[in-house]
């Protein structure tokens, strides 16, 4: 008897099992390109500066691969959750930028990895929401339309906007600019939506805007040559001028620890939390007209953020 499960059936089954309702998961799921509660109506005015935390590429299952274990990543993430709970003041949110697991949804190890990833956030303070930004490992090796729909079932829409204290955050699926650019019109839909958000920001300005995605727009200069770690030059030339006109202050992504400014627009990258030697994360302070940020490891995390960012 052949008991082998077809890869597509396995992916669908695991995808359904991995999905949790909002009541079961601390991860906010975007609907209608918005996050529940984090709207302009509730968060449209800046009363004071605030903090938020970025984690990049946790890749649950990476350290033990090819063995099936997430213990290293689980221990590090739970330690980080404890550290974040002790921060004063509390961060307004935690954003995880891409590659939540080491395996992809059509691989057998995906389900236990993604479940362990989600469960770690149950140890985070209930007042700190978690926001997920997709990366390459959230989709099959050869993604189809069903791959996008599966991700949206589990984690919510893959592009959206939200507001905190008058600052508008834009989350993008950077894969639509590279590997997924020809996938059933999703890239066009995201571009049209982004254009509308940036235009609205010029007509009815927020305090400023921040763009978050997994892949960097650029590392040092918006006109730098194309490589595997930046968005294609033609796309940059098309979209970055619109961002500047709309008062986007920062482009936050993964890759390696780096930041550079280009005509008032700062590109900020954070290295993977899955770094076996020194897992780390970045804390941001959003002020009335600018953003500060610092990178920390699990061994040098501050508790008093106002003192650290004075």
UniProtKB/TrEMBL annotation:
This protein's name: Serine/threonine-protein phosphatase CPPED1-like
One annotated GO molecular function: hydrolase activity
Phylogenetic classification of the source organism: Eukaryota, Metazoa, Cnidaria, Anthozoa, Hexacorallia
SUPFAM superfamilies tied to this protein: Metallo-dependent phosphatases (SSF56300)
Residues covered by the Calcineurin-like phosphoesterase domain: 76-220
InterPro entries per record: Calcineurin-like_PHP, Metallo-depent_PP-like, STPP_CPPED1
PANTHER family on file: METALLOPHOSPHOESTERASE, CALCINEURIN SUPERFAMILY, SERINE_THREONINE-PROTEIN PHOSPHATASE CPPED1
């Amino acid at each position: 008897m052949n008991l082998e499960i077809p890869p597509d059936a396995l992916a669908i089954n695991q995808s359904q099992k991995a999905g949790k309702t909002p009541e079961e998961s601390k991860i906010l799921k975007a609907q209608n390109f918005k996050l529940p509660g984090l709207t302009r109506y509730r968060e449209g005015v800046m009363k004071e500066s605030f903090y938020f935390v970025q984690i990049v590429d946790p890749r649950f299952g990476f350290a033990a691969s090819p063995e099936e274990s997430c213990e290293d990543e689980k221990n590090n993430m739970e330690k980080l959750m404890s550290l974040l709970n002790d921060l004063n003041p509390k961060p307004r949110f935690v954003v995880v930028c891409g590659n939540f697991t080491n395996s992809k949804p059509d691989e057998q190890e995906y389900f236990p990895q993604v479940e362990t990833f989600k469960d770690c956030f149950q140890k985070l303070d209930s007042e700190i929401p978690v926001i997920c930004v997709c990366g390459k490992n959230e989709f099959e090796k050869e993604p189809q339309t069903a791959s996008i729909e599966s991700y949206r079932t589990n984690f919510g829409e893959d592009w959206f906007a939200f507001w905190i204290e008058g600052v508008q955050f834009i989350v993008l699926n950077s894969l639509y600019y590279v590997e997924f650019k020809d996938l059933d019109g999703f890239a066009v839909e995201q571009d049209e939506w982004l254009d509308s958000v940036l235009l609205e920001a010029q007509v009815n300005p927020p305090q400023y805007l921040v763009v978050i995605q997994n892949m960097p727009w650029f590392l040092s200069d918006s006109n730098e040559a194309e490589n595997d770690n930046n968005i294609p030059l033609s796309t940059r030339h098309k979209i970055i001028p619109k961002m500047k006109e709309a008062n986007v202050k920062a482009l936050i992504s993964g890759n390696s620890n780096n930041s550079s400014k280009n005509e008032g627009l700062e590109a900020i990258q954070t290295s993977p939390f899955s770094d076996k030697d020194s897992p780390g994360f970045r804390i941001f302070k959003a002020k009335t007209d600018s953003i500060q940020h610092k990178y920390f490891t699990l061994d040098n995390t501050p508790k008093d953020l106002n003192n650290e960012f004075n």
